[in-house]
Amino acid sequence: MRNRANRLGRLLRLTVAGLALAVLAGGYADPGMAAVGEYRLIAGTQVAVGTPFDKGIIKLKELVEARTNKRVLVQNYPGSQLGNEPELFQGMMAGTVDIAVVAPGQLGEFVPQIALLEMPFVITNVAQRDRVVEGRPMQKLAEIVKQKTGVEIIGVFGGGVRNMFFRKPVKGLEDMKGRRFRVQPSPQLTDSYKALGLEPVVTSYPELYNALQQGVAEGAEMEAIYVEKAGFPVAAPHFLMTRHVITIRLLSMSGKTLAKLPPDLAKIVREAALEAARYERGIESSEDEASLARMAKMKGVTFTEVNVGSMIGAVRPVWEKYAKEWNLMDLLKEIDSMR
After folding, report:
1. Tens-place pLDDT, residues 3-28
2. Which residue of 63, 89, 227, 239 could cross-link 272, Cys pair, CB 3.0 to 4.6 Å?
3. Of 87, 85, 73, 94, nearest in space to 14 by CA
4. What's the CA angle centered on 270, arms 126 and 107, to 5 degrees?
5. Domain of residue 35, residue span
6. Residue 219, phi then psi, degrees to nearest 5
């Protein structure tokens, strides 16, 4: 409880500071500008400037501001300026952050059911991912998120394929057993990677590079574009091509914020979010492949293909355990049938 309070306090301080900077930089001294920015939305991500998530938020900003004649302005804070993903989500629950991109696995403390979308090998190809996020599975899970937290899922970012990467060479399932492996703060993901024989270590994204460099974590998993951007191949250059997750990232919005917007503006924001999400998924998929190609040319970087059949067999009981606990076995079977 104390940690949550500390995180929320930090987020509130950062948000207030960000708003103060926006006022100074945005020209509130000019009465004309004040009239333009009738509503201002604070958007945050924990990833770096220029990455697909950041580009997706910029696209959302462009669409919203154009379609509302700048009655609604979107202020973008990438690179964890407003905190990490759990802090951003808390901010949306409290109404101090309006929009954020968060990973399902980061919401274990708030909505554990959403982690089903990020458990290894539940979703294994882009076509299946699209059927899931545009169909009943996402609708059902979004309802649960809204009921539990008041936060609405207004779009889905993603598109990259997540592979594992390690400090030392690795050839397959037996070879990686016992290695300390970075996971997001989710019991479901912890259990999934334990089932693969790894030793899960919870480390935040901003701290991951140092954790890999110092050996606190011996491996991690992520999309190629973010691995490359963060320089992770320097610390952990050995890739195991597991393709165990097709990325789903929740473009989310505070229900408190949506309730304050007039219906016509809320409708514009929701429509723009779906369009920005489709745009982001397209660029992330293509940029992911380009990143893999660039990293393959780096000195010391290795890529190892692996048969994942035994891995899927190892984690399937974990999926089923939690799906039964959440009364979501029918939903898991539906997602499984969408491959």
Report:
1. 444 444 554 444 444 443 343 334 33
2. 63
3. 87
4. 60
5. 2-337
6. -165, 170
